[in-house]
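Justification of resources, computational component.

The compute hours requested in this renewal are based largely on the per-chain cost of generating structure records like the one below. Each record pairs the submitted sequence with a full structure-token output. That output is archived, and it is also reused by downstream analysis tasks.
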Amino acid sequence: MARIANVSQMTVSRFLREPHTVTVGTQRRIAAAMRKIGYVPNRLAGALAANRTNIICMITADLRNPTLAATVQGVCDAIGDEVYQIMLAMSGRSPATEERIIRECLSHRPCGMLIHNTTHTALSRRMLQDADIPIVEVGNMTRNPIDSVVSYSNFDAIKKLTEHLTATCSRIAFVGLAARYGDRAKSRRDGYVAGLKQAGIKPDSNRIIEAPNSKSGGQILTELVQSQPDTDAVIFAGGDLAYDAVLERRRRGWEEPMRIAIASYDEALVRSLPNVLSLRIPRYDIGRRALETILLRLRGSITEPTRVEFPFELLTSH
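The structure output for this chain reads:
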């Protein structure tokens, strides 16, 4: 391989153990030589020598959510011709499950980690801080990141959505996860409350609804209209709930004239539906930038933790 790539055997050895210590151009030449001769490196042996692998672990919540899938795609596309590989795990909404996954991921001696959740157990935080590898959180612009954070503000996004609705509506309900599910859920609820207060509207606890897993968006909308018939708008923190609620609104004939406005936290599932306010969040770009941040840290191009906040956009379909 060294002869084909026109480098020294020591350089090939360093590439196999710690690829970030070799220039990108040399990485590509050695990788091409590996492909040419069909060489398959023994990563276990390399990890024993370097105490690190070329694995970057990514822990996300649930790939059934298309918005999270976009972030994963951005991460994978950013790898390109790099020698690093992504190990993907799903933790759901359970900090305890995430803790178990973090321990397992770290046992593989990764060179970096991407984590969607930003609420962790004390043990998870300690394990990650002690790992001495670049770590990027992507689910929220958390105030207390473990290392770097590349994301957007859940609080600001919902606050902006709520403020937009208050121009025409005054009895706005919010449907989201309970705050115990992490700082993203709490940030969204707090943003909704702040948006109402900004418009001089007193929040009504009866219009703050914790979305049960057993109910669809249509069921939640119907029950809300029955219990709070003067409600004139609903913000759904989940795109799947908003999608189902829009279909139910149409089925019941509440669109002409508009009986109740519906807003979705994310536009991915509702972009094709009429009369929906939504948010466009650049999740693909967030995933790509997060991976690039880890690569820059591995190469030594940046040495300190970074904070990168992405903007979001309000969309109105007609």
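Residues 250 and 299 are 54 Å apart (CA to CA). The first helix runs from residue 2 to 5.
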